[in-house]
Structure formats: structure tokens, C-alpha cells
Amino acid sequence: MEQYFSATQKMEQEVMFPSLLRGVFPQEGAAADAESHTDLYERYQLLKAIKPMVEKGLASVGDQSPSGVDTDTDPALDEGADSNLEERLSHHVNGLQQVLTDLTKNTKALTRRYSQILEQINLSEDQSSS
After folding, report:
1. 47: which residues sit within 8 A by CB, 6+ positions away?
2. 101 φ, ψ to 5°?
3. Bias category Acidic residues: which stretches (predicted)?
4. What is the b/e burial string over 32-54, where b = at least 16 CB atoms within 10 angstroms of the residue's CB?
5. Does this model's pTM top 0.85?
6. pLDDT (tens digit per residue) in 18-36
7. Rounded to the nearest 10 degrees, what angle do helices 75-129 and 2-14 cross at?
8. How far apart are CA 110 and CA 107, in angstroms?
9. Which residue among 43, 57, 105, 112 is buried most deeply as judged by most CB within 10 Å?
10. Of 88, 71, 92, 72, which is closest to residue 80 (Cα–Cα)?
């Protein structure tokens, strides 16, 4: 989770001109094959839109209190459901971890590519001025 927030914060700090990402497509293997029709500008917009949703989701999980749980349910139903809770939780935590890992990889790849674009711009400016 910390890596995801760190990567998105770095992306937001480094990508000062997102329009430079228009028409630029991912170069890297895993990041490129799934959404190769999406340029990095669209991906940047998506990653920025996802961050508040992740933050809000985490905040709402923290806001839930045990008093909000319905205690009038049938105890026989709870027994069957409880036996599966650990498995269900594990499944969802693993899924969330995979999604955050993928988001982190995409964010880092986008930030690296943006830095490469800036380096290319700087090199071409240096060459034209000499």
C-alpha cells in the first residue's frame, strides 16, 4: 500500500506537463500488452482518478465500527458464514494486493517514461543550441 501511494505521489510531483504523454504508448512488456491502445496521457488520467477512490475506500473501511454490525441474525447462519470468512478475506486481500501491485508498476513505468521524454527534449534542445 505504501509503495502505491509513494509511486503515485512521485508521479504527481514529476509529471508537470501531462500533455507530453499524448500519443506516447507504453514500451515495457507487461504494462504494454494489456492496454496498448491507451496512450500514456489516458493512463495518467486514469491513475490520477483511481488514487482518490483508493484513499476513500481505505478511509471508509476505517470508519466502519463494530456497532454497525447487525446482531439480530440467526446464529445458525453465522456459523456457516464464519467458517468461510477467513478464506473470503484472504481471497479479497490477495486480489487487492495484486491490483495495488499492478497500479504501482503502471505508475512507476509512466513516471520513468515521462522522465525519458524530458531527457529527450533536453538533449534535442542542447543539440540545437550548439
Report:
1. 8, 11, 103, 106, 107, 110
2. -65, -45
3. 71-80
4. eeeeeeeebbebbeebeebbeeb
5. no
6. 999 999 998 755 444 555 6
7. 30
8. 5
9. 43
10. 88
Cell matching residue 105: 508498476
Position 114, amino acid: Y
The grid cell for 30 is 507487461
